[in-house]
Hints:
The protein is of the alpha+beta class. The protein has helices spanning about 5-10, 15-30, 100-115, and strands spanning about 35-40, 40-45, 50-55, 60-65, 85-90. The protein has a single domain (about 5-115), classed as Aspartate Aminotransferase, domain 1, CATH 3.90.1150.
Amino acid sequence: MDDGTGAYFKTLAPGPRRVALALREAVLRAGPELTEKLSHGYPSWHGRDWVISVIGHSAHCNLQLVRGAELAAQFPDRIEGSGKSLRHVKVRSEDEIDGELEDIIDAAIALDATSAPRSARAKPRRKG
Length: 128
């Protein structure tokens, strides 16, 4: 763990900490090329762009998918939220880190790998 992520995990209660660390391991297995760091105060993994974060709550963790809206139709029973881009998967126990969740992580990493970094994407112009 680097860039403060270890300190973040230590702040979590034991149950969410176990889930968060198991999510971290799943992300690292799927994307060993990703860079781990604190982003917006939470452990995050970055490839070409910000891909995934883990956020601990009192009774669960959210696996945040930065471009989750683009994946929601593929995994409608797992991906939650209504954000324009950001969506999440609630994970209450290590048992919920299953093959489908690993597929979601793989899809998020693949989506990042096939796109231009956010800084290189054309930004829409506002009509004035």
